[in-house]
C-alpha cells in the first residue's frame, strides 16, 4: 500500500512541511529510515537522527523546530507517538480488511453470519454458530457448536473456540489460542486414581478483549469463566475454570491463574506470576513479575516476591537477603571468639 504525505496528514489531522506528494510504502525506525519509508520522532533522545534519516516522511510534534537542513518531509501533529499509533491501527485495518469465503471450508447450514465476513480456508464453523458483522476468521480456525461472536472480531489462524463460548464486540483472538477447553477438574477415588469431573460451563469474553497467541482459557465447571470488557492478555497465559477477570485488567506472558479466583478491575499483573485458586484480588492491584500470590489481595496493593510481599517490604527484605552471607560470616566470627 502506498500513501502520500497529504493523505497521511489528512488521516492524522496534521500539517505537511515539505512535499505533500511524496509517497511511502513501508514503516521504519528513524535511525533506519530509507527512501519510501515513514517514521516518527517523539523521544527527544532521537532528535539527532532526524537530520540523518533517509525516511521520506517523518511525523513530529507541532512544537518541533529543525535546527539543521532536513531531507525528510515533516507531518506536524499534536502528539507524534499517538498519531503514529493511530496510523498503525489504520494500516492494520486496511491490510486486514479481507472479505469473502475461501475454499475449502466447512460451515454448518444452521450457522448465521453478518455482513463483511472473511472466512479463511480450512476453517470449521459448527452448528448454531452466530457471527456478527465485519468478523475476520483466518485459515485453520475451529469454532464449535453454539458459539456466539459479536461485531468487528478478528480470530487469527489456528485458534480454537470450543462450543458454547461467547465473544463480544471488537475482540482479538490471536493464533494458537484455545478458548473453552475443559478445566482441570479431577477427583481422587478409593483406588488412588483420579476421575474426571465433567466441565459443563462456558467461557465469556466481553467487549474489547484481546487474547495473545498461545493463551488458553478453560471453560467453567458450572457457570462461566469470564473476562470482562477491556481485558488484555499477553501470549502463553493460562486462565483456569471459573476464573473472573475484571474490566481493563492487563496480564503479561506466562502467568497462570488457578480455578475460581476473582481478579478485580484495572489490575496490572507481570509475567510469570502464579496465582492460586479460590482467592479474591481487589481493584487497581499491581503484581510484579515472577511473584506467587497465595492469599486474598486488597484494593491498590503492590506486591512482589514468592510468596508475595508488599512491594516496599520486599525491597527492604531483599537488601537483607543480599547481605545474608556477610551476616552469617559475622555470626560465625562472633561464635568463634566466644569459643576461645
UniProtKB/TrEMBL annotation:
<keyword id="KW-0012">Acyltransferase</keyword>
<keyword id="KW-0808">Transferase</keyword>
<keyword id="KW-0441">Lipid A biosynthesis</keyword>
<comment type="similarity">
    <text>Belongs to the transferase hexapeptide repeat family. LpxD subfamily.</text>
</comment>
<dbReference type="GO" id="GO:0016410">
    <property type="term" value="F:N-acyltransferase activity"/>
</dbReference>
<comment type="subunit">
    <text>Homotrimer.</text>
</comment>
<keyword id="KW-0443">Lipid metabolism</keyword>
<dbReference type="Pfam" id="PF00132">
    <property type="entry name" value="Hexapep"/>
</dbReference>
<keyword id="KW-0677">Repeat</keyword>
<feature type="active site" description="Proton acceptor">
    <location>
        <position position="241"/>
    </location>
</feature>
<dbReference type="GO" id="GO:0016020">
    <property type="term" value="C:membrane"/>
</dbReference>
<dbReference type="InterPro" id="IPR011004">
    <property type="entry name" value="Trimer_LpxA-like_sf"/>
</dbReference>
<dbReference type="InterPro" id="IPR020573">
    <property type="entry name" value="UDP_GlcNAc_AcTrfase_non-rep"/>
</dbReference>
<protein>
    <recommendedName>
        <fullName>UDP-3-O-acylglucosamine N-acyltransferase</fullName>
        <ecNumber>2.3.1.191</ecNumber>
    </recommendedName>
</protein>
<comment type="pathway">
    <text>Bacterial outer membrane biogenesis; LPS lipid A biosynthesis.</text>
</comment>
<keyword id="KW-0444">Lipid biosynthesis</keyword>
<dbReference type="GO" id="GO:0103118">
    <property type="term" value="F:UDP-3-O-[(3R)-3-hydroxyacyl]-glucosamine N-acyltransferase activity"/>
</dbReference>
<comment type="function">
    <text>Catalyzes the N-acylation of UDP-3-O-acylglucosamine using 3-hydroxyacyl-ACP as the acyl donor. Is involved in the biosynthesis of lipid A, a phosphorylated glycolipid that anchors the lipopolysaccharide to the outer membrane of the cell.</text>
</comment>
<dbReference type="GO" id="GO:0009245">
    <property type="term" value="P:lipid A biosynthetic process"/>
</dbReference>
<feature type="domain" description="UDP-3-O-[3-hydroxymyristoyl] glucosamine N-acyltransferase non-repeat region">
    <location>
        <begin position="22"/>
        <end position="89"/>
    </location>
</feature>
<dbReference type="InterPro" id="IPR007691">
    <property type="entry name" value="LpxD"/>
</dbReference>
<dbReference type="Pfam" id="PF04613">
    <property type="entry name" value="LpxD"/>
</dbReference>
<dbReference type="InterPro" id="IPR001451">
    <property type="entry name" value="Hexapep"/>
</dbReference>
